[in-house]
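Protocol step 4 of 6: structure prediction from sequence.
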Amino acid sequence: MKSRLKSAVAALAIVTALGTFSPVMAQTPPASVEVPPLGFVKRTLANGMDVYTARDTTTSNVTVQVWYRVGGKDDPEGRSGFAHLFEHLMFKATKDFPDETFDRLTEDVGGNNNAFTSDDVTAYHETIPANHLERLIFAEASRLSSLVVDESVFESERDVVKEEYRQGVLAQPYGRLFSLFMPATIYQQSPYRRGVIGSLENLDAATIEDVRRFHATYYRPDNAILIVAGNFDQARLDGWINEYMAPIANPDRPLPENNVVEPEPTGPREATFHAPNVPLPAVVLAWPTVAYRDADRIPLTVLDGILSTGESSRMYRSLVYEQQIAAQASSGPDFSQQSGYLSAYAIMADGETPETGIAAIRAEIANFRDAPVTEAELTEAKNELVANALRGRETIDDRASALGWALINTNDASVADREIAQIQAVTAADIQRVARRYLTDQRALTIRYLNADDANPVTEQTTAFTAPVTVADLAPVGQVFTLLPEAERAALPATTEPVAPTTPPVADFHLDNGLRVLVVEKDGLPLVSARLNFDAGSGDEALGKAGVAAMTAALLTQGTATRSAPEIATEIEQLGATIGAGSGPDFSNVYANAPANVFPQTVALMADLVRNPAFAQEELDRQRDQTLDGLRVALATPGPVASQAAARVIYGDAAYGAPGSGTLTSIPAITREDVAAFHQRRYRPSEATLVFSGAISESDARALAQSAFGNWSEAGPSDARAAPIDQPLPPRIVVIDQPGAGQAAVTVALRGVSRTDADYFPLTLGNTLLGGSFTSRLNQEIRIKRGLSYGTRSSLGVRREDGLFTASAQTRNDAAVEVSDLILTEISRLSTTRPTESELTTRQAILTGAFGDSLETVDGLGGLVAGLALYDLPMSELAAYVGKVEAIDGAAVQSAFAEHLPVDRASLVIVGDAAQFIDALRAKHPNVEVIPITALNLDNAALQ
């Protein structure tokens, strides 16, 4: 199920990632693979709260989720974005604990927390060590019944939401299209048309009284669903729920009426929108369909799978692969409580017109109406959906979320389990029927999305929507809570006995040709993961050949001596596998995930891709064009531009400084000979590691590795490697001027350390304290205290040689200088003062908790093992990780930052609308370099 918010975010992520090389993503389990039922037990409290629990003793964690039946559709008229704003406020104080306590109760003990808002729901979810469960039940009950909302918190979080809007909507080239214009145009009467994120105008109109009334209206026991899954004692959990949740009184007033019936289209509609910094035109066709509960949701979902899932799908095959008219083409169904739609979009290739894309999408949709789909297509699409359900139940969080979506949309817990059989029952006639019923030209909406210019100014967001709920419909404020004096607060419950995570053993052996094989067996679902890593990446590229490593990896799935690219895509889906390839600064890899009973065939296909790539010229030409279109999109987005420029500033003309995806100049210069030579020199068994993780034994893995790779021999000696770095460079202050940018991206960068440096662990802990979590110092100073950014982050960026340390944030343009000062100050503070004992303890818990989470999935476990192998670290490090983290002290953190990351060696890169901040920046840094984005040249250290 894809909510609109999820669909928009996913589409933006796809568009942003066009410059990278996406793996073939097809998932098709055979019919014999069964998806286990969710297995939750329900009870309803006297106050109306529904409670669902599922015990799982294979994990040391527990997840707590509370799903409230309130979302963007319930925003009062003139207050769009209200439900989402309130999601932020729910992480603040209650009468019994101060602001940010939820982070203390989760992150600080090695867990995590988050929330999301979509059209119909606001959901809060935490995963924690199992012995902290009672505290989370207490805390969830406290914020439901006694939330504190004061003026300062309200103002600060409203500013944060505004920055989220700027970052996700205004700063993204296609943000306005997916988040604003699509819902506003697709829906004619539904409150869904306002979009979950809302508008800056409506956010500014909100008052603290509105907020308190909203909480009193919708945050009540009978409007909530509590879901708990993990390692717990059922009797104790029931007792805690009875103690903390059951006494909360339910109001005797009804919820506001909200059931808008979307009218049937009376004919085709068209709309054109313009936005700044749109590098490639986009088109969308959309058709109103059905609500989630409607039986036709299932065949429409299967239709969507045939239309756009994977490289064998109709849209990808036609628009991207064969006609080459689109850089990206996809579709997505959106089924909500009241109504739904199916949309298909294309980001056009450079030089292609919107009309070409519109005609191509119409032709693909007409094919569904005119003729039945083939049995092969139908089987593949069904299997993809079943595979998604299987992989979507690998963790306790996944299973709880699957239940939550079913309950919000249907109030029927069995829906998530029953829909597997319903998918399998869909026929070709069902697909044709729903296409003829819903996807007609007369019901279609056509959207063109183009770059704004003098003749076509930026299209303004529509905010004057009516809504079924008004501010007057909200409940009275009721009791206004304040934080009690500490002596009067209810005490946090004590923790219970901890459940320790375990690290599995790793089998380690070599084949006769030198290939290293690592095997780590994991109980759980019948899934197996494989990673074949090679010790070669963008750091091994020759000068002027940036992108060769990534291009080589991308072409592996695009044809072998015996298989064409379409045949490979189809075979992957028939196997029920995911297979992809990629590269980084120090590595190239091929990876796969498949149900255990078809894993041997998956590895055989994987071996053919690695050992026998065709590197056909036509495939290189196609990948080159797609990559260039992706780079054009990335260069219109402040964040990616800042990241790529920072690498050049730190490493200069050395290989580590070049963008891994290549540049607008280097990609056209890559030849077939370049790719073939890189493969011959670097893809060698003696320089590779094969990692198996999941439902596979050492003996089976040994036989499989020998069968697939045992007779693989090397063709000649490998070349000597040149160092990917030169001598350290002096710091620089660089501004890349992007007029009209929706936000400024601020990045502070330093040359860091290698993964094998003795100070890796102290620096890792210090980085987590600086910007590696929500409770980090940067987030506290920039987001929580000042509301200047939706989020901040820092990365140690370790590599085989000196890594790239970065600390970054996106903010409104006029705040760029203030944010850069705050980042530099916090980096400096780590070099001059020791972290407190409390900070050390919490950061250690965050690191060990994240490590434990990685052990929960076959891909996460395999990634840990592969990471150790990449840097020639012993497998014993897996079991030693927690102990090494817990041994770090404050003096080691301060010393490591002072030695390796002193702020006087830091460079600063800002990408944004320079007119709004350059004078203030120049006053602090007279040596600032200003480079127009139209003159930016990522091929050299000068950047122009």
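Step 5 (inspection) to follow. Confidence is low (pLDDT under 50) at residues 1-31.
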